[in-house]
């Protein structure tokens, strides 16, 4: 390049200009600091400007920037959760086999009838209530099909104090009946916190009116337990004892029998008032339920079980009499006014209708509910 010839502008940044020799400075026209530098070529782009894109490139660019108008999506609304909506889910279904728990929650059951009873204007509003759950397998129709469904049921006990702190363990497969403290089976009455109060201080729970039977045993921990311990949970029944009434179970004339013989034990019931032992035993032999050579041992076994049952009935009568004598008037009034309510799910389009299988019976200890809802 000849000295004094101006360089064309390029897009690349040039290095800082070095001071020119005196002879070069004399060949270039002088510029005042206030005047802009003389343009080298008006048709050339400025140093910092990008080259003008071709029409084809511009067209492509416009096509990329073009946005297809999307239809406006409809606003999605979620129904507001009810204050007691998860109450039935929090109540432990006592006595349900662990491998059938998933069947209980197969449907989104609706217990709005229970919620309404506990809310303002409801039959249980402002009453202290204790809730426990259970399940009733029933054959019910749903969407043109009938199948056995695990129906969840919630029992509400209106009482100023817990109806019991014990759990009964009894089944046809178990020869003996056990009455254990709830805490031994990891169960207890705990306050239920409605949704609107979940953020409240713990101190407010002291005024809770709703208590639920909860179990802290988790399914994941079952593999560490012995089989007999696991089965105990499945045979649990909420226990209740009313000293003011004759207990139908304790005054029953029926005994459950489990005669342990090989290869198969004998399961049956014997009523010492209605059944004649000789005929009862012969019938079992005729039905091949009992080997003929076990007739006499079986009869001795039944006689012993009947003696034990009669003794238990006598002791129960004495215990009730003593409890009545030592009971305060306040406690006696509470037992007299205690009510049991049995709640079934409300029919919905997404759940089976269980109206036809509702029954007042709760269990062998509580007997029948005062009201079925």
Characterization of this structure:
With 373 residues, this protein is of the alpha+beta class. It is built from nine helices and 13 strands. The strands form four sheets. Strands 5-6-1-2-10-13 form a six-stranded mixed β-sheet, with no helix packed on it. It has a three-stranded antiparallel β-sheet with strand order 4-3-7. A two-stranded antiparallel sheet has the order 8-9. The N and C termini lie far apart (104 Å). Residues 1-10 have a biased composition (Basic residues). Keywords: Coiled coil. It comes from Perilla frutescens var. hirtella. This is Myosin-H heavy protein.
Short summary:
The chain is an alpha+beta fold and 373 residues long. Residues 1-49 have low confidence and may be disordered.
SSE map:
Elements: H1 22-27, H2 55-65, H3 87-90, H4 101-104, H5 112-118, E1 129-142, E2 145-158, E3 166-169, E4 178-181, E5 187-191, E6 210-215, H6 227-234, E7 236-238, E8 254-259, E9 266-271, H7 277-286, H8 295-326, H9 329-337, E10 339-343, E11 361-363, E12 367-368, E13 371-372
Parallel strand pairs: 1-6, 10-13
Antiparallel strand pairs: 1-2, 2-10, 3-4, 3-7, 5-6, 8-9, 11-12
InterPro entries: HIT4 (IPR039313)
Organism: Perilla frutescens var. hirtella (Perilla citriodora)
Biased composition (Basic residues): 1-10
